[in-house]
Structure formats: structure tokens, C-alpha cells
Design brief:
Two copies of one chain form a homodimer. Chain A is 37% helix and 28% strand. With 206 residues, the first copy, chain A, is an alpha+beta fold. In chain A, a hairpin with a 2-residue loop joins strand 8 and strand 9. In chain A, helix 4 packs antiparallel against helix 5 and helix 6 packs across helix 7. The first copy, chain A, is globular and about 55 Å long. At the A-B interface, strand 4 and helix 4 of A face strand 4 and helix 4 of B. Chain B binds a DNA duplex (30 and 30 nucleotides) through helix 7.
Chain lengths: 206, 206
DNA sequence: CGTACTTTTGAATCGCATCAAATCTGGTGG
DNA sequence: CCACCAGATTTGATGCGATTCAAAAGTACG
């Protein structure tokens, strides 16, 4: 099995598990898995994009998570069934790992610790995300995002600004306008795929 | 050591760990731990309330999580340092477990699986919370909360409505008004410590 | 009883969603 | 190579809903 496996996975997974990994190509518009189904495989997104969605009681689907790299459903490892759908929004590639084998690997305490670390990081990330979504105005959300997800004041976009808008829970029109305002008053610089804070202005909360 | 330990903990923790648990009384206004400090103990809140807060780059503290029962910092088990403060908003009691012992217990694969389950559940809960915070209007947020956190259409309040407001990321005035409206049009019934959906009206998304 | 806090109501304001439409863009096929 | 299309980006106008500030009424507790 000489498929390409990201370094991250190579370090994380025990040898026996790596052998059982497969490459899985997925087309935009298809599903990686469905709500209610038994998790047979764990998906690690290498390229493309998939979103976790769920149908609410009222019928509308809502997005739980957008994933452009990394595990898609790490929380479902021990679940009996998926609690959401995984819909591919961009054609790409994933590594599949048999869930059963992954569960058994948890017996290996070295791997168990790594998995716990993975989950812990995701929890911290999600808490930060919730914190961000609780902010009232777009300016605050955007700056919070750049500070928490960016590197040295620069946020590299994984996709387009429209996706960014939904990530912080606002309409794309409003986001574009906010960015434009912040650019004019000199707090940040926008490129086609990044946002960079300048040091000229320091954002002061009231 | 014959302190009271909740059933949940008794089932989760191995015997050796249970022996090392201690009761920890905390006063409103004090801190259970501080950002940057090394995690010596894991806290399991039995009564009272604590919030996880973090000081942003701009100086204002923001709430990451409100906890009225259960583990407070499960994600920090393997961390070198806490990434937030734990501030007590209500006097109460916690069970403390030495972090080092807890880490060692992860070697026990039976416990490791339970811990992974604990983290997985928290991830799912947080994803649902993010989903809720992304909703645009208060009515949607409130109904979403009742449906996801409530039991059979009834949400029991863990605290007061003011806390509920911050939980869904809105001002308390706005929440009170929304509840009042929903009560008048017959979609729910409010008591001093619960919200119950009626079946008369079915909420239809546009 | 007094204090602190929650609950409630009121009024003014503003930011964002919404709807509409124009421009720009990259990618596709003829 | 160009026409074309789907999608992203941008700008505009409008209205609603939530915030904000203020203040009153209710409630728990020492």
C-alpha cells in the first residue's frame, strides 16, 4: 500500500493501522457518510472540502463544521451511528481508516494518548469558535479570528471570503463591507487569500 | 476517604484514582485555576458554578464556557499549562483529581476509552453549540436550544434566564422579550425554571 | 427592611440581514 | 482563442431585530 499519507497521520497512527489506510477520492456533491449510519471508516481529509451537516427537526439543514484538512468525524470513533452527514463541497481526497481497527488501536496506550490529545485540541478550538460566535459585531469576530487562527497577525484563507463569512456566522455582503471598512481605516490589509493586521491601529474594546 | 463522589465519577474512574480524589470547596469570586499555570488537578464540579474565561489580546475577558456540573477542563489533561482561567461565579463544591494520576490512568485502556468517550461527547456538544450560535435570530436560537438540550420539548434551566441569554449569545432584555412573545403566541410555556414547547404551534422555517 | 440581583418594560439607535443587481473571475467547451 | 457560464466579489437601498441605555418592579437573602 504505497498511497500518499500525510506526515501527521504517519506520526499519529500505529504501523498496523497505516497498513489498513486507503485513499478515497470524492466528488463535489457526494456524501462521505450519512447521519444514522454505522461508522465503518474514519475519514482524514487530504484535499478538497467536506462539511458536516444535520437536518434539524424543522427540515432545514445546518452546517456543523467545515473541514478542509484533518479528521472529519473524530468524535464519532466510538459512536454507534453518525450524528450528521458529511457532504463534499469540493472534490478531493481522503484517507480512510477502518473504524474497528482504530478502536482496537486505542488499547495501545501510546496511541490512546495521541488520540486524547487530538480530541482535546479540537475541544479547545471549538470553545474558541463559540467564543467568537458570541461576539456581537462583525469587526470583533473578524479580529478575533485573525488573532486566534492567524499567525503573527496574518490569517491565510483556506477558501474564499464567502466561506469565511459563514465560518464566523455572518452574510458575505456584510463581511465584505466590514473588511473594506477596516482596510480603509488602516487596521488590516487584504489580499486575495489572506488578511493581515497592521500595527498602526490597535483595536481597543470599549 | 469517604467524601461524596458522584455516580458518574465512580463509574468513570479506576479504583486507584477514586482514592486520590478530594473534595474542594470554592467560594464565589475565587479562582479554581489560572491561565498559564501547570494543571495539577482536574476539577469535577459537583455544585455551584464556574466559568472558563480568557483575557483577549485587547484586555477584555470573555467567557469560553459555563460549567454547572461535570469536568471543568477535560481538554487540559495533557496540557503543559491551562489556556484559560476558571472563575467561580457561584459558591460550590468540586472533586479534585491529581492530573498526574489521571494521566497515568490513561495507560489503562478501559479508562482511556471512557475518557475518549467523554471528550467525544463534549466535541459533539460544542459543535451543536456553535451551530446554535450561528443562527440569526433569537427565536431560532431558543428553539434550537430547547430541542437539542431539552428533554421531550422541555428545557430545565440550570440557572436563571440571564445566564441562558449569555449562553445563546444575546442580551437578557432581548431574550425576555422573545420568550414573552413566544409565550403569547402559544409556542411555549415559561415557568421560573423551565421552558416547555407546546404542540399547538409548529415552528416552520421559511 | 435593606441590599443585590433578576425580571420586566420602554424608547432610541444602529448594525446586519435581506433583496437586487452589477462587475469580476476562473474555468469549460465550441 | 473566444464565448459563455457559474461562482465570487462588490455596491446599493431598505427594513427589521437586537443592542443599548434607562428605569421600574419583583425577588431572594442576610
Amino acid at each position: 500500500m504505497d498511497i500518499y499519507i500525510p506526515e501527521l497521520l504517519r506520526e499519529l497512527l500505529p504501523k498496523e493501522l497505516l497498513k489498513q489506510c486507503h485513499a478515497h477520492h470524492f466528488e463535489k456533491g457526494t456524501y462521505l457518510f450519512h447521519q444514522g449510519k454505522k461508522p465503518e471508516y474514519m475519514f482524514f481529509i487530504v484535499s478538497g472540502e467536506s462539511v458536516l451537516t444535520r437536518i434539524s427537526n424543522h427540515g432545514e439543514p445546518t452546517t456543523l463544521q467545515r473541514c478542509k484538512g484533518g479528521f472529519l468525524s473524530e468524535a464519532s470513533l466510538l459512536s454507534e451511528k453518525y450524528h450528521c452527514d458529511a457532504y463534499a463541497t469540493q472534490t478531493g481526497m481522503a484517507i480512510t481508516i477502518p473504524t474497528q481497527a482504530l478502536r482496537e488501536a486505542l488499547m495501545n496506550s501510546d496511541f490512546a494518548i495521541k488520540w486524547v490529545q487530538l480530541l482535546s485540541r479540537e475541544i479547545m478550538r471549538l470553545r474558541t469558535q463559540s467564543e467568537r460566535l458570541s461576539l456581537k459585531d462583525i469587526k470583533s469576530k473578524l479580529l478575533h479570528l485573525i488573532e486566534t487562527e492567524g499567525t503573527k497577525g496574518t490569517l491565510k484563507l483556506q477558501a474564499d471570503f464567502k466561506s469565511l463569512a459563514s465560518e464566523i456566522g455572518v452574510t458575505h455582503e456584510a463581511l465584505y463591507r466590514t473588511i473594506s471598512t477596516l482596510e480603509k481605516d488602516g487596521t488590516l490589509i487584504k489580499t486575495s487569500n489572506s488578511l493581515q493586521l497592521t500595527r498602526k491601529k490597535i483595536y481597543l474594546a470599549t
